[in-house]
From TrEMBL, chains A, B:
This is MerR family transcriptional regulator. It holds the Pfam family MerR_1. Residues 1-70 form the HTH merR-type domain. Transmembrane segments: none annotated. SUPFAM superfamilies: Putative DNA-binding domain (SSF46955). InterPro entries: DNA-bd_dom_put_sf (IPR009061), MerR-type_HTH_dom (IPR000551), MerR_fam (IPR047057). Keywords: DNA-binding.
Amino acid sequence: MKLAELSERSGVSTATIKYYLREGLLQPGRRVTATQAEYGEEHLRRLRLVRALIQVGRVPVSTTREVLSALGDESLDQHSRIGVAVEALPHAPLPVEDDPATERARHEVAKLLDRLDWDDSRGSGPSSPAYGTLVTAVAALTRLGYPCGVEELLPYARAVSQLSVTELDLVARFPEEERVEAAVALTVLYEPVLLSLRRLAETDESGRRFMNTE
Amino acid sequence: MKLAELSERSGVSTATIKYYLREGLLQPGRRVTATQAEYGEEHLRRLRLVRALIQVGRVPVSTTREVLSALGDESLDQHSRIGVAVEALPHAPLPVEDDPATERARHEVAKLLDRLDWDDSRGSGPSSPAYGTLVTAVAALTRLGYPCGVEELLPYARAVSQLSVTELDLVARFPEEERVEAAVALTVLYEPVLLSLRRLAETDESGRRFMNTE
DNA sequence: TTCCGTTGGAGAGTGCGACTATCTAAACAT
DNA sequence: ATGTTTAGATAGTCGCACTCTCCAACGGAA
């Protein structure tokens, strides 16, 4: 397959594919002559993954490169590769220190994780970016006067805990060499699914309660 | 309160506050002289909301302006104001038409919403941005060969349906004039909460299954 | 064999979004 | 009197994701 065909079949312009090649998001094709290279199905597949991460998952290009390099890092076991890839994904800014709302938020988050049996030796400790994002968001809500203590957070935690089990069931069904990619793709691409379903559910529930039905 | 104090108490630089004033995200202060204005607690509160939406919720500045104007639109009832504000929020790109994966995705999403008793006359129909985001994400997963039919989506839908009930309970506890802002703030700011909890849950579950425990 | 279109490679340019800096004249603050 | 702060306006910066332009080397059809 030549560049033009790769572009055609993926719906990505040749200019953008060249850009991704330059940025190291795609392996160079097999060089046939000085000005010709041949691409295979695996290039098409990788390109589709890259596009999905960038366009649907809103992952920045430089981050995508890091995620992809974690995918192929043979020196790590499956859990570590998934961990490295997920840590590289975009997160909200780290919490502002020296702030009373951040202090309270840290405290509530610590209490929450205490009540769940999540083992932070597996990578969910206070230093992980996801933990920081959680603290930042809880602090912002606190500053605005909206409740988000353990009582409010627990239902969310229990819900996503359930979901993560069914999701990893899905991942486990793939052959071992495809599992890390599956975990990353599902982590990133199920986020918009989750968020849009939530917005639809909220719209429905809000209508049920607050709509004028004359 | 002068500009400098507003800046101090909010942690936002005076240059950025001026920028927000220019962009219409903040009401001008009460003009005392030609070169002096007085800001009140409501400015501080609004500024904190703006910052939370922009920094934590990653809402673009122009979108924030639209959301805020929906908040104060007296001509709409509560549900419509929430609807307008939520529709303005950022969404993944609309689905690519004339694409087999998009067709399949539309079909699966329609089946899913059929099985739930969500009433699309309330604003969750196929033309809403959240619906489009859902189709886009499902199509991307489909193209990559990951399963996301009704069977996989239903658990997500049921989970967020539960959450939206408890969330709207929270909103309903506020006095009527604060409800729309509460709905918007909770919609936007619980998103990072949900996503970071999910990543923590997945990290934990992945560790439980795939970690080398020697 | 002669062209016209395509390719890989590399650098420069574009458009956008979110600030940030500079400037001016007025008005406090000491 | 004088140094600081302010509103208001304009211009500049920075990062990001492309997108454009060139070039010399092919490769396929006439």
